[in-house]
Amino acid sequence: MDNIYVAIKSQRSQNDLLRSNRQNPVVDHLASLFSLSHEEARLYTLIFASVLEDGVCKFEHMKREFMIDDEEHVPLLKSIDRLEKRALLTIKRDGGRFARINRLTPVMQIDDTVLNWVIFGIDNLAEIDFSDIYAVTEAVIDLMEKKQEGTLTQSRFFNEFERLMSKLDRKEPFYECFRGFPTQEQMVVFICIMEYLERNSGESAIRIAENIYEKLAYKSQFVSKILKEELKIFKHDIVRLDESPVLFDTTTQVELTEASISMLFGTTVTKQKKFQSRFTRHLKHETLHKSLFLPDDLVRTLQQFENAVTPQRFAKVREMLKESRLAAGFVALFYGQPGTGKTASVYELAYRTGRDVLQVDLAAIQSKWVGQSEKNTRAIFNEYRRAKEEMEQEPILLFNEADGLLSRRFDVRDSVVQMHNTMQNIILEELENFNGICIATTNLTQNLDNAFARRFLYKLEFPKPVPAQRKAIWHARLPELPGNTINRISRYNLSGGEIENVVKKYRLEEILNDRKPSLAELEEWCAMERCYNKPENYKIGFVNKDMA
């Protein structure tokens, strides 16, 4: 047939196409091409013509245009169902791919694989270089996108994927990552390849299952197999879970192993991917420089801590501790009143040693779902272990403002207390054999659980600054102030954080009102900071006995 495109479109005007038994070359061509009965071929010809004309074929329009009566209605719908099962058309879902299909008034589409084959005689796979893993991955992405859009049925998606895989160049090293594995597991490998090329750490178990299956039962079963590492691709070291799996934690990610990356891309470079934090806040060390004003004895202890964890000495110190049968991790507690420099000291330590910080937000890991908070707590340490492997320098794990988490455990009275105790037990277990650098900061120590106290190698108190230190802080923050003003406001017994608040008010006044605040205003702000933390009443603007 010289111009099949024109020939098929012309069938739209054949009003008796569905009922006529006379010979029709277009109908005969499609019947032969797809092994259809003449009844199915006539219907398919009409659907094909409508798709070429309008982009879709609406059954409601077809009924009106060809005057389909009630007796013809159901047999035609059954034929449409058979054509869909043959993957020769797809029925459009209203509201996305998870919405229900309206089978009484279907809206039909034909995917471009079929269109290209019928109209141009072109196989979509003909132009793919099957010796190039990047070209093959692009073809798989295209199939998955069509499935997500609903233009490719589940069965056709599997058929096209299997047809694609049958054409892989078996001489290429990357073929070993797919050889002998079931179709679904080959799909998992490609999903992990996509994430690797996007510089992501991996893909979650539930998202992988959603990319492959539509039915909930199949998805649930496949997620379970992933989390239990029952797939062959785990056993053959093609993929791995990015952290120790917690059963039915569908956020657990699957990623390529170093061995499979080498086979796929001919490289062993695994540092290309950027570490992705999920349960902690990743702070880069170069952004954490802080100016500190601390007592000399505390500075000396911090210096000792810093010397032990510098990249040049850390490995040696840790090895010596192991030889002495001592815990090789460095776990410290920084405690003191708010604003005394605890967190800032952690940041400065990170900056000086070139180590990033993984900061734990305790509120973020707590969940209303039963058992999820405990899983998230375990996941923090799993994430730290993964970070140690993927970062150039081992990071510092920081539990900031961990007062509630380090407090004494309670007798179990309800599920909330039980959750709290379980989270504490997980942290105690992890810290017992911790092999890294962990620092916790807290404002309160009187309620510190004894089991935590003995696990901290360093327990450093951060006192409120004495007058000389306060003077140094004021001078560093507001160097333009005259000496007598600094002497005056240094008499207020403020912490470094409280001084910082006053400095911000000073700078805001300069920016918003284009003027420098007076000494009286500075003293008023200092007194307000003191009032906030004291039960007594203060005379704003005057120095009193509580200033020093």
Short précis:
The chain is of the alpha/beta class. 51% of the residues lie in helices and 8% in strands.
Describe the protein's architecture and organization:
There is one protein chain. This protein is α/β, with parallel strands linked by helices and 548 residues long. The protein has 25 helices and twelve strands. The chain has helices at 4-10, 25-34, 38-54, 59-65, 70-85, 112-119, 133-149, 154-166, 183-197, 205-212, 216-227, 232-235, 258-265, 296-309, 311-323, 342-353, 362-365, 372-390, 403-406, 415-432, 450-453, 467-477, 483-489, 496-513, 519-532; strands at residues 57-58, 90-91, 107-109, 203-204, 239-241, 253-256, 281-283, 330-336, 357-360, 396-399, 437-442, 458-462. It has a six-stranded mixed β-sheet with strand order 7-9-10-11-8-12. A three-stranded antiparallel β-sheet has the order 1-3-2. Helix 18 packs parallel to helix 20 (415-432) and helix 24 packs across helix 25 (519-532). The termini are far apart. 32% of the residues are buried. The model is unreliable at 244-248 and 535-548 (pLDDT under 50).
